[in-house]
């Protein structure tokens, strides 16, 4: 194969164009990729004994719930794994009930009903000294819908307004 | 169109073409029209003869969008229902109202909502402008979908228009992108949560879903970055993309002869021995191969696939026949959106609040069908396989459905399949839109409606 001038130029401009295209894609990606603005940090939540059994406490700073499910403390993201709505805790039924599409979770964040693909995501909780600390940087993907470690029975009427 | 098309008249010829000077003093209008300035702008005499009308088209840059003559049947409303044209008109209305809105809007989470309120109360016709913008946007999505449906049932995506259908699907996607990005800009509860739900649908794309979503909204949650991103897409990226695609789309409509021959095989085969062509469309091409014809600017090769040769000239001049109809339809479209804008105000709920989800949170109406499906089936099926499959098949439909027939009785499979999907989509959208209340529970819309556009 003889590389003459014509052959070289024909390849060269294609290579240059491909190079420019690659550079454009890389530039776009670097400029437009998601910024880690919400990069998690640690939030100190106070004494663990303040979280009574069967309660869910909203932590506005971290947009999360701290629940006490039968003695187990958990930090649950308020974001529904289905389509990202904020999931409120219903005090009367003792469950999480998503207003958007009707997903219901038990107090431990496990699936009860609705279109959600999994249970509520959570965050790592630890005790430092006598204070509870949640690390919003370390997300624990919600349990599969078959997992049932906590009580799922409704304690009372549901909060979702009926039809 | 076998006759030679007229060429540009030279100066002497032009004078000869002028209507004979009426006796008596020339009116001021005549003097202006025969003056140098007028004639430098409008290069042709305004003659109401076939030649004059043709010249009018040739010498007007804007009329180049149209062919000089179109088949007479194109003039009938029920031929195409003018849906593509109406969509284009709506787009122009959206551009003009959108520019007005840009003068009063800052894409910032701290001021966007306030700007909307100011537009409502502090700007003359501000509310109307926003209403018209919103109604035109909704109507444009609707009309584009109807256009797609119409083209499908007419079989107008078949040879030689296969690629124009693909372009049309691109325009459809851009239209949805327009509507979706615009949805967020008012930064109220409705827009915030509709876009939250809408962007979270992307999460269900396998492997790259989260990446795509993050790229779209620029972070973990919808915020300032998302607003700016959607704004830039809405006012700069998408308009340019739509204009370019639309230009090619319309250019191809014109080049492909503007009209499908109903009942023929393939697009123009009605005159080319249909019995033959049913088995193979090749003879059509063979007939026109190596064919050349005279054009305005000389002799060019006839494009094999866009060729049309009609034994009887059933064409009429675009100007005025087609143009008058288009002007009337454009005025009617404008009247409809202005009437809607006067009658129904675009909603503006409370300022966007990430800590409070309204009940129910619905995606924009054209995605509600998808949301409805997601509440019934596995997300992988309802969220991805089904819509992506339908979209993919639809986009490449002209290359999948190789049946050259355009009449309904010879393409039953395609029509039945399309109709089933269409019915499912319409039912899912209507149920999701009107029959779903808080907690996505089934409700009856005549008792309490949760429809918000």
TrEMBL record, chain A:
Its cofactor is [2Fe-2S] cluster. Keywords: 2Fe-2S, Disulfide bond, Iron, Iron-sulfur, Metal-binding. Residues 46-134 form the Rieske domain. GO terms for cellular component: membrane. InterPro entries: Rieske_2Fe-2S, Rieske_2Fe-2S_sf, Rieske_Fe-S_prot, Rieske_Fe-S_prot_C. It holds the Pfam family Rieske. It comes from freshwater metagenome. This is Unannotated protein.
From TrEMBL, chain B:
InterPro entries: Cyt_b/b6_C (IPR005798), Cyt_b/b6_C_sf (IPR036150), Cyt_b/b6_N (IPR005797), Cytb/b6-like_sf (IPR027387), Di-haem_cyt_TM (IPR016174). It is found in: Membrane. Residues 1-31 are annotated as: Disordered. Keywords: Electron transport, Heme, Iron, Membrane, Metal-binding, Transmembrane, Transmembrane helix, Transport. GO terms for molecular function: electron transfer activity; metal ion binding; oxidoreductase activity. The keyword Transport applies. Residues 43-262 form the Cytochrome b/b6 N-terminal region profile domain. It is a multi-pass membrane protein. Residues 352-453 form the Cytochrome b/b6 C-terminal region profile domain. GO terms for cellular component: membrane. The keyword Phosphoprotein does not apply. One of its GO terms (biological process) is respiratory electron transport chain. The chain crosses the membrane at residues 83-105, 135-153, 165-185, 231-251, 327-348, 380-401, 413-435. This is Unannotated protein.
């Amino acid at each position: 194969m003889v590389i003459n001038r014509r052959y070289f130029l024909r390849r060269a401009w294609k290579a240059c164009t491909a190079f420019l295209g690659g550079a454009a894609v890389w530039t776009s990606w670097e400029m437009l990729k998601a910024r880690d603005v919400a990069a998690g940090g640690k939030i100190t939540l106070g004494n663990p004994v303040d979280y009574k059994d069967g309660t869910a406490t909203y932590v506005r700073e971290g947009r999360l719930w701290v629940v006490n499910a039968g003695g187990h403390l958990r930090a649950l993201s308020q974001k529904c794994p289905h389509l990202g709505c904020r999931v409120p805790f219903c005090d009367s039924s003792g469950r999480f009930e998503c207003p958007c599409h009707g997903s219901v979770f038990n107090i431990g964040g496990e699936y009860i009903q609705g279109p959600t693909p999994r249970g509520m995501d959570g965050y790592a909780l630890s005790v430092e000294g006598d204070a509870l600390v949640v690390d919003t940087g370390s997300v624990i993907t919600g349990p599969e819908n078959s997992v049932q470690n906590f009580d799922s029975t409704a304690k009372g009427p549901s909060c979702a307004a009926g039809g | 169109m076998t006759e030679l098309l007229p060429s540009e008249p030279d100066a002497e010829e032009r004078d000869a073409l002028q209507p004979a000077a009426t006796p008596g003093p020339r009116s001021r209008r005549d003097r202006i029209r025969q003056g140098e300035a007028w004639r430098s702008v409008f290069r042709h005499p305004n003659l109401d003869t076939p030649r004059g009308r043709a010249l009018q088209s040739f010498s007007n840059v804007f009329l180049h969008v149209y062919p000089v003559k179109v088949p007479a049947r194109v003039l009938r409303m029920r031929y195409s229902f003018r849906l593509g044209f109406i969509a284009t008109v709506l787009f122009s209305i959206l551009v003009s109202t959108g520019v007005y809105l840009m003068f009063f809007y800052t894409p910032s989470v701290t001021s966007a909502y306030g700007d909307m309120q100011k537009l409502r109360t502090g700007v003359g016709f501000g509310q109307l402008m926003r209403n018209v913008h919103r109604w035109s946007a909704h109507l444009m999505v609707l009309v584009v979908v109807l256009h797609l449906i119409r083209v499908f049932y007419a079989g107008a995506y078949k040879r030689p228009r296969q690629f124009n259908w693909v372009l049309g699907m691109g325009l459809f996607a851009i239209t949805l992108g327009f509507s979706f990005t615009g949805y967020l800009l008012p930064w109220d509860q409705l827009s915030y949560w509709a876009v939250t739900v809408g962007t979270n649908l992307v999460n269900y794309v396998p492997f790259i879903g989260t990446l795509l979503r993050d790229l779209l909204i620029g972070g973990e949650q919808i915020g300032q970055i998302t607003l700016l991103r959607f704004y830039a897409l809405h006012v700069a990226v998408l308009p340019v993309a739509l204009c370019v695609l639309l230009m090619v789309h319309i250019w191809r409509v014109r080049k492909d002869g503007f009209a499908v021959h109903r009942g023929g095989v393939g697009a123009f085969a009605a005159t080319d021995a249909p019995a033959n062509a049913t088995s193979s469309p090749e003879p059509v091409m063979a007939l026109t191969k190596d064919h050349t014809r005279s054009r305005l600017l000389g002799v060019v090769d006839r494009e094999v696939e866009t060729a049309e040769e009609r034994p009887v000239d059933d064409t009429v001049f675009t100007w005025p026949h087609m143009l008058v109809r288009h002007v009337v339809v454009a005025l009617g479209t404008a009247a409809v959106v202005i009437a809607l804008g006067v009658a129904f105000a675009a909603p503006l709920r409370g300022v966007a609040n990430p800590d409070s989800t309204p009940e129910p949170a619905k995606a924009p109406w054209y995605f509600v069908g998808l949301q409805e499906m997601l509440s019934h089936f596995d997300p992988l099926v309802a969220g991805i396989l089904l819509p992506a499959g339908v979209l993919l098949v639809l986009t490449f439909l002209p290359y999948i459905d190789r049946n050259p027939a355009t009449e309904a009785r010879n393409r039953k499979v395609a029509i039945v399949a399309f109709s089933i999907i269409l019915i499912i989509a319409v039912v899912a959208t209507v149920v999701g839109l009107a029959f779903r209340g808080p907690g996505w529970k089934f409700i009856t819309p005549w008792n309490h409606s949760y429809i918000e556009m």
